[in-house]
Design goal:
This protein starts with a helix and ends with a helix. β12 (357-364) and β13 (369-374) form a beta hairpin. The longest helix has 15 residues, at 38-52. By secondary structure, it is an alpha/beta fold. It has 2 domains: 82-277, Vaccinia Virus protein VP39 (Rossmann fold, 3-Layer(aba) Sandwich); 299-391, no CATH class. It has helices at 3-16, 25-35, 38-52, 56-66, 72-77, 80-91, 109-117, 130-142, 196-206, 208-218, 234-246, 321-326, 379-391; strands spanning 99-103, 122-127, 148-152, 164-170, 219-228, 249-251, 256-262, 265-277, 314-316, 332-340, 346-354, 357-364, 369-374. α1 packs across α6 (80-91). Strands 1, 2, 3, 4, 5, 6, 7 and 8 form an 8-stranded mixed sheet that branches. The structure holds S-adenosylmethionine (SAM). Residues 63, 104-106, 109-110, 126-129, 132, 154-155, 170-172 line the site of S-adenosylmethionine.
């Protein structure tokens, strides 16, 4: 089935779950106001706050609350485009698996879609939220699906060792968006040293190490794994990929970054990984930053004069700013400072002259890069910013 026809089938499936594709925040919040009482809203806000604490019981309580029948369609509609993007990609890759495990299946919106699209394949969804599993079982029955079962279990306790020939985990393994990840070797590079202590510490802090070990136990020999997590940021993507490679998993396809909207907000997650066990593929792990939208440097900008004197000649706040900084002609450093921050990251700030401009460059070991160039007569502005950054506590 083509991705387009899977997308069509997904729209029909999501409608059966009561989900709507809402495109504006105004419409979305109007729907929320009509559907939720003030008690619902208070409970949801409180539970979101508690979930941030990272305690297991709060995580389960959050998903139990969101699985309530009057809350589910509204709240999960925020993820409408996520379901379309991920559901179609996964469904297109189920074949030739005979038995598939969906880890952290939640209320089963995607698991029931896969089961519907692949009636000859057996699906098992596990989740540690009892209310989510209750909803998943109810809906599977309503949809008349006989090839899917849901169990309330933590991944750590999942049984059936070496039995699944495909495991899918989407937004289920890395609940660690706040974790800074692993720093680069220095502010001048995006490269991470191979430091087993740092790697082990990352895997322990985020819990990803033990979860991947558990998945490895559940896989049949030669099985595949599909993963999609919030690991876009290079500092997390690199140790995450190294953790996958260390379990003997190889890339079966080029990992694809996926972008979708949560109503109006654009979410950049991913990449979408398709991995194969015990098979040395030809796709190499990529540890470089993703191509970004930062403008390439061209020294013509130094001769151009904007109509607005407050607009810089050049500005780039993405990793490609490093390349631009390296290309600056006849760089003369006026002031520079490299220091270690309280959280361990190294920061470099540099104020300098080039012919036709003055620049301010900031770089740190968590992949942030910024380059701003202004005409020479605006040097005082950049001096001010330089001092602000250097003197910040
Ligand atoms: C953001 S939801 C994602 C649901 C679904 N995979 C999807 O893509 O829509 C994350 C789910 O993972 C479940 N989960 C997280 N860690 C788990 C674990 N160790 N064992 C079982 N379920 C887990 C949570 O209870 C929650 O329902």
């Amino acid at each position: 089935m083509s991705i387009d026809s899977l997308q069509d089938a997904l729209h029909a499936h999501l409608a059966r779950w009561g989900l709507r594709h809402v495109l504006s925040d105004a419409d979305y919040f109007a729907w929320q106001r009509d559907s939720f009482s003030s008690t619902d809203l208070n409970q949801l806000n409180q539970q979101v706050e508690r979930k941030r604490s990272g305690a297991l019981c709060d995580d389960i309580a959050f998903y139990d609350l969101t699985a309530q029948p009057h809350i589910l369609p509204v709240l999960y509609s925020q993820r409408y485009e996520y379901y379309c993007e991920i559901g179609a990609r996964v469904a297109a890759r189920i074949h030739p698996a005979k038995i598939v495990l969906d880890v952290g299946s939640g209320v089963g919106i995607l698991t029931t879609f896969y089961a519907q699209q692949h009636p000859q394949t057996e699906f098992v969804g596990i989740d540690r939220s009892p209310a989510s599993i209750g909803r998943a079982q109810e809906q599977a029955e309503r949809l008349g699906l006989t090839n899917v079962r849901f169990h309330c279990a933590d991944l750590e306790a999942a049984s059936r060792r070496r039995s699944y020939d495909l495991i899918v985990a989407t937004h289920a393994l890395v609940q660690a968006e706040q974790d800074p990840g692993v720093p680069s070797r220095s502010w001048e590079t995006f490269e991470r040293v191979r430091d087993s202590l740092q790697q082990t510490d990352f895997e322990r802090r985020t819990g990803i190490g033990s979860k991947l070990d558990r998945l490895a136990d559940l896989l049949a020999p030669g099985a595949r794994v599909i993963l999609f997590e919030k690991t876009r940021q290079l500092a997390r993507r690199v140790p995450f990929q190294r953790a996958l490679a260390a379990r003997g998993w190889h890339l079966a396809e080029h990992p694809e970054p996926v972008r979708y909207r949560l109503v109006e907000e654009v979410a950049d997650d991913g990449p979408f990984y398709v991995l194969e066990q015990g098979w040395e593929g030809s796709v190499a792990w990529d540890e470089s930053p993703e191509p970004d939208e930062g403008q390439a440097f061209d020294d013509k900008v130094l001769r151009a004069r904007s109509h607005d004197p407050n607009v810089p000649l050049y500005e780039n706040h993405s990793p490609s700013a490093q390349r631009a900084w390296e290309q600056l002609p006849d760089r003369t450093v006026m002031n520079e400072c490299t220091r270690r921050e309280a959280d361990g990251r190294e920061l470099h700030v540099e104020l300098g002259r080039i012919s036709g401009g003055v620049y301010l460059y900031c770089a740190n070991t968590f992949d942030q890069r910024q380059l701003v160039i202004v005409p020479p007569d605006r040097v005082a502005d950049l001096e001010g910013y330089y001092q602000e950054i250097v003197q910040a506590p």
